[in-house]
Amino acid sequence: MKTQDFLSLITEHQDKALLFEYAPNKLVGANYHITEVKHITIDSVDCGAQTDSWKETIIQLWESPLDILNTKYMNAYKALAILKKVGTMKPYTLDAEVKFEYSNSNFHTAQLYVNDFEILNQNIIIKLGIEKTACKASDICGFAETVIDKVESCCTTESGCC
After folding, report:
1. What is the secondary structure of 110-159 as a DSSP string?
2. Range of 149's domain?
3. Whether residue 154 is found in the same domain as residue 117
């Protein structure tokens, strides 16, 4: 989901509670806070010596131990107010992918993609997921996109990779 799409979604549903599902049927606690918004530029070189760059917006969610008894989720109106204030200080790249950084005692710290969302009663449920790593130079390195029984190293002198 792009940053603009997320901002539009919560603008359209400001009266609803904003919930985040970080794994199937597992919600970020109602005691969460938005503690940081990162405007990231990635400049990369892959194993095929190809360069790439892109931007991401990363919104950090943190469960406050001081609010552990809180059962009322933040509404989209409050989240939007926080994100608008951030945008006045550091403008968003609206076509940047939005991710959410989160962890708890049972879930490792991860930057999670938005896979989908659901409007259910008075809730917006943002369904997050982990993206698997992939070889971006698979065509150059000779890796098929399907599972291969025998994989030879792409990092040989003859391969043109690495």
Report:
1. EEEEEEEEEEETTEEEEEEEPPPP--TTHHHHT--SS--SS---S-SGGG
2. 135-162
3. no
Q: Are residues 113 and 139 in the same domain?
A: no
For residues 116 and 28, the answer to whether their CB atoms sit within 8 Å is no
Whether residue 44 is found in the same domain as residue 117: yes
- Predicted TM-score (pTM) of the model is 0.86
Residues 104 and 157 placed together within one structural domain of the fold: no
Same domain, 48 and 105: yes
Q: Report the amino acid identity of residue 14.
A: Q
Please name the residue that has the structure tokens 């989901």: 1
Read off the pLDDT of residues 26-74 as tens digits, 9 standing for 90 and up: 999 999 999 999 999 999 999 889 999 999 999 999 999 999 999 999 9
> For helices 76-89 and 3-12, what crossing angle results, to 10°?
140
CA-CA-CA-CA torsion sign (103, 105, 108, 113) = negative
Same domain, 140 and 93: no
For 75-111, write each residue's pLDDT tens digit.
999 999 999 999 999 999 999 999 999 999 999 999 9
Calpha distance 21→66 (Å, rounded): 21
Separation of alpha carbons 54 and 6, rounded Å: 18
Structural domain count of the chain: 2
